[in-house]
Each structure stands twice: as C-alpha cells, then as structure tokens.
Amino acid sequence: MKLRRSERMVVISNYLLNNPYQLISLNVFAEKYEAAKSSISEDVAIIKKAFNDGDIGCIETVTGANGGVVFTPAISTDEAREIAKELCQKLSENDRILPGGYIYLSDLLSTPAILKNVGRIIANAFKDKKIDAVMTVATKGVPLANAVANILNVPFVIVRRDLKITEGSTVSVNYASGSSDRIEKMFLSKRSLKPNSQVLIVDDFLKGGGTISGMISLLKEFDSKLVGVAVFADNIQERRHHLSYKSLLTVTNIDVRTNKIEVQLGNIFDS
Amino acid sequence: MKLRRSERMVVISNYLLNNPYQLISLNVFAEKYEAAKSSISEDVAIIKKAFNDGDIGCIETVTGANGGVVFTPAISTDEAREIAKELCQKLSENDRILPGGYIYLSDLLSTPAILKNVGRIIANAFKDKKIDAVMTVATKGVPLANAVANILNVPFVIVRRDLKITEGSTVSVNYASGSSDRIEKMFLSKRSLKPNSQVLIVDDFLKGGGTISGMISLLKEFDSKLVGVAVFADNIQERRHHLSYKSLLTVTNIDVRTNKIEVQLGNIFDS
C-alpha cells in the first residue's frame, strides 16, 4: 500500500501507539508502505518530535542490524496532576460513602477514559524499571491492572480469593484480611506467572495492607521479584503497614457522621 | 503550542484514537495548536484518508454550530480473520485441557495485545448499534468487557457471583449454573447501571448459557435493553440454549482422552 508522507505518518504513529515498549524494525514500515527506509526514518523523526512536544511519549532509536525504534508512553506532570485533581473531586462526592465507612469506587474504575489516564500515570511512575507482569487481586483490581499493563505492554496476572476449576493447578498463601483481621487464603494459577518475573503489584484501594502483603508472599512462591506497588487510592487513617507504595489519591478522612470524604493527591506526585 | 502541520497531524490523530465515539469540535485543536480552523479541517481530511486506507477507522464530520468530528474505530475483515486464526491455533494447544474438560484461557485474556485486538473485533461487529454500557460477569469476563468498552468508549458493569460490601445496594437474580445445573445467585450494584441503558453483554466462554441468561434477566430488573451478546469462544458440543450471540472462536470438540481441542472461527465471521 503506497501512501503519501502525511498519511504514512498517521498510520505509523498509530502503530507505535498500539505497540509500546516493543522494538519495531523500520523495515516493516518500509515494506508495508513501499517507501525507502530513509523516508521512513524521516517520518519517525517528525513523529518523535510530535510525541515529545505533545507529551505523548518518547521514541528511542536502537541502531544495528536488529535495530529499530521503541515507543515509551509518557504523561506530563501537569496533565497527570490535572487528571488526579479531577479524580480527587469525584472521589470526595459525599454519596460515595457506604455503610461501614467504605467508599464506592466501581464507577470510576469501570470508565475507560478514566482507566486509561490512571494507567498512564501509574505506568509512567515505573517506566524506567524492567517489568514483566502486573499483578492484582480479583475483582476490583482487574481493570486497573489491565490499564497499567496496556501501557507497559506486558501481561497481567489475577490473584483470586476463591478456587476456580478453570484456573488449573494453583499456589495458595495465607494473608491477614485487613478489614477483618481474619486469616484468609489467596490463590494464583501456577501457569499464570513465569519464575524470575519482575512484577508490579496494582490494586484499587490500600487500607490495612494485608492483601498486598499476601501478593508479595505469593511472588516469593513464584521465585519472582517485586518491582513496586501502586494503588488508585490509599487511606492514611487506617494505615497499619510499612509497605512502600505509590498512590494516585490519598483519602485523609472519612467522616460517616457528616458524610464527608477528604481526598488529596497521592504520594505518586511527591518529589 | 504552535506545531508544524506534520506534527499537528500526529498529535490530532493521537487524540482521536484515544477518544473514539466522541464528538470533538475542531476549535479545540485550532486553539490548542494556534492554527486556523481551515488548516485543522485540512489536517483532519488527511487523517481521515489515512485512517481509511490503513483500516484504522472512520472519521465522520458533523456540521453546524455544535459540530465537529467523530472517530469510529474499525478493523478490516482480513485483519480480523488473521487475528482470529492465530487465536484458533493458540486455543487448540493441547496443554490447555484441564481436568474435567475445561480449557485454560487466562493467559490469552490477560495479554494486552490480544485483548486489544479481540476488543476491536467485537466492537466492530456492533459499531452501528447504540450502546451505553458493556456488561460482564466477574472475574474472567472483566478484561474482555474492558477491552470492548475501551473501543466503544462506554463504561462497563461487572455482575458478581458473591456479595461485596464495597458495592453498596445490589439487585440479585437467580440463574442456572450451566456447568452444574444448580441454581445460583448473581448480583449487580444498584448504582452501576442507569435505567433505560442499551447494553452489550460480553463473556469469555459460552457453554450452557446459564450465566448469560442470568445477565439478561438482570437487564430487565434495571429496565435496560439487550443490544447483543458477544463471547470470546463458545462450545457447540455443550450448546443447550437458544441464545442469539456472536463468537470469535468456536470449540467444536474437546477430547480429554487424546488431549485434543478443535477450534474454528466463530460465527462473528459469518456472512
């Protein structure tokens, strides 16, 4: 398919956007669009500048016979803060408080436009690390892990609190369920995580830290390493753990009596 | 931020790709990139042709004072078939058969590159319908629903088989669990679906059809309408339902004795 330069730039940038963190040979484009490799190089140089100026991400060139380009998505601090501030407001809506002092989050974590942006912010905070997989716990963590994994272009693995026949052999660990101080079990399908994986743990809400500590002990069972922990929101009122983590939002106070939730930007914006 | 035309086209197409099914005023770009609206119109015309030629999707222009452009993602039949054929091969790998004749799917449904493509194919089959939300059941359906919702740019709602305190008030229905002929309950948070929604149901694997029938009866409880049902794979050996649905893949035979799975393209490719 022969295209004009301007059109070629559109389809090449679409391809890069859909294949982040992947080494792509320029020959692929040269063949597909029947253009000289030098022309494709010029296209990519323009796309690189546009991605940079538009805070879309960074394109790096790898030289050599097996060379090509790698696109790493990014987000500017300004855009990330803007997005997080909007989420602060949404999260502090007073009709989110459920009996027991829980916060209703499901609507936020099931809206693609929000998820994509949250995924971009979390992935950006770990973009210099080598990550092989994103781990989370069913069910509420799944869309978030999916969003982060989309940007990092790695698989995600889902830890379960129940045993499912469709998961095959599993490994289980005990963990202290933060909300109830009960000891529970969590399970991970044996074939879902390769040994020696570098893993980013992602979850929706961090309170007691029991679930995340459980996932960290699962990592040991899979001879895998923790790269970091990222959560959509944490609640500092109930912090009883010493986990190192990054949060997008921090709930500083839930007042069930006055029906008020106080939220501020999380520690992912520190430094 | 003033950009050259070539760069402007890259950032504008990135914006359109990230905001499908949304009316976007060209004034937004004209202001942001300090260009005349006529120049932006020309940019969009080129992007439109490139999206068309590259089978990325279609850009429609809405005229009038509140006008703008709407990007509808698409996928060519050839590309969709190519993707599905590769998935056929993956699904028929003999180490996927689990005791009881179940098929291990989790690795496919947790790989972003696969999910994105499956989402594109399913969304494409319903792109002419008005859809307000995508519904699925926890846990395995979630990444798939998320992928379809990403393309359609609508929220997804997660039906659960257990009651969670963090979901607030729920509505429940009974359903016949296909695999066991037991009657079970499924729950949906009351605030997760607005009345009068047009809903696309998505799930990973269709066998007896009990789960999907359950979700359809939930729709009635929410005064909402079924637009269609789409599944990653169905198993015609165990078909005991009269549901109308579209499948990406069809399992025609699972032979536990010889450890063989036979898979073919699903009915989404019919006609």
What would you call the structural class of chain A? alpha/beta
User: Which architecture name of the largest domain in chain A does CATH use?
Assistant: 3-Layer(aba) Sandwich
Number of strands of chain A: 12
CATH class value of the largest domain in chain A? Alpha Beta
Overall pLDDT of chain A, averaged? 94
Within the CATH hierarchy, at the fold level, what is the topology of the largest domain in chain A?
Answer: Rossmann fold
Please indicate the percent range of residues of chain A in DSSP E strands (runs of 2 or more): 25-35%
Assembly state: homodimer
Taking pLDDT < 50 over at least 5 consecutive residues as the criterion, the unreliable ranges of chain A are: none
Arrangement of strands in the largest sheet of chain A? 6-5-9-10-11-12
Q: Give the N-to-C terminal Cα separation of chain A.
A: 48 Å
Largest pleated sheet of chain A = 6 strands, mixed
Measured by residues with Cβ under 8 Å of the partner chain's Cβ, the largest interface is: A-B, 62 and 62 residues
Question: Mind explaining what this structure looks like?
Answer:
With 271 residues, chain A is of the alpha/beta class. Chain A has 2 domains: 5-73, Arc Repressor Mutant, subunit A; 77-269, Rossmann fold, CATH 3.40.50. Helices cover 33% and strands 28% of the residues of chain A. Chain A contains 7 helices and 12 strands. Chain A has helices spanning 5-18, 26-32, 37-53, 77-91, 112-125, 142-152, 210-221; strands spanning 57-62, 68-73, 97-98, 102-103, 133-137, 156-159, 170-177, 182-189, 198-206, 225-235, 246-255, 260-265. In chain A, strands 6-5-9-10-11-12 form a 6-stranded mixed β-sheet, with helices on both faces. The first copy, chain A, has a two-stranded antiparallel sheet with strand order 1-2. The first copy, chain A, has a two-stranded antiparallel sheet with strand order 3-4. In chain A, helix 1 packs across helix 3 (37-53), helix 2 (26-32) crosses helix 3 (37-53) and helix 5 (112-125) packs across helix 6. Chains A and B meet through helix 1, helix 3, strand 4, helix 5 and helix 6 of A and helix 1, helix 3, strand 4, helix 5 and helix 6 of B.
